[in-house]
Amino acid sequence: MAKKGMRDFALQEENGNEIGFFSSKSPSQAALKAAKRGHKDIRIRELGTKKVHVFAGERVQVDKS
């Protein structure tokens, strides 16, 4: 059972195949999780709806100074 306020999202490829699932409170949080895993063109579909949110992501090493 999902925590209160949590929603489920599916990570989609360009052709619509779902390749991963994330639970978070917002689509942007789910996209951040996908970006952490190395995805660049992020298409997140909210489960139970036809809404698709599109994000661009990348991982960048920052200086620790």
Folded structure, characterized:
With 65 residues, the protein is an alpha+beta fold. The protein has one domain (7-56). The protein is built from one helix and four strands; from the N terminus they run ββαββ. The protein has one helix at 27-36; strands at residues 7-12, 18-24, 41-46, 52-56. A four-stranded antiparallel sheet has the order 2-1-3-4, covered by helices on one side. Strand 3 (41-46) and strand 4 (52-56) form a beta hairpin. The longest helix is centred in the middle third of the chain and has 10 residues, at 27-36. It is globular and about 45 Å long. The N and C termini lie far apart (42 Å). The relative contact order is 0.23.
The best one-word shape is globular
Question: For the largest beta sheet, what order do the strands appear in spatially?
Answer: 2-1-3-4
- The assigned structural class equals alpha+beta
Average per-residue pLDDT, rounded, comes to 89
**What count of structural domains?**
1
Q: Specify the biggest β-sheet.
A: 4 strands, antiparallel
Uncertain segments: none
Elements, N to C (H/E): EEHEE
Q: With helices defined by DSSP (H or I, 4 residues minimum), what is the helix count?
A: 1
Give the proportion of residues in helices.
10-25%
Please identify the oligomeric state.
Answer: single chain
Distance between the termini: 42 Å
Question: If you compute it from the alpha carbons, what radius of gyration comes out, rounded to the nearest whole angstrom?
Answer: 13 Å
Describe the structure concisely for a colleague.
The chain has one helix spanning 27-36; strands spanning 7-12, 18-24, 41-46, 52-56. It is of the alpha+beta class.
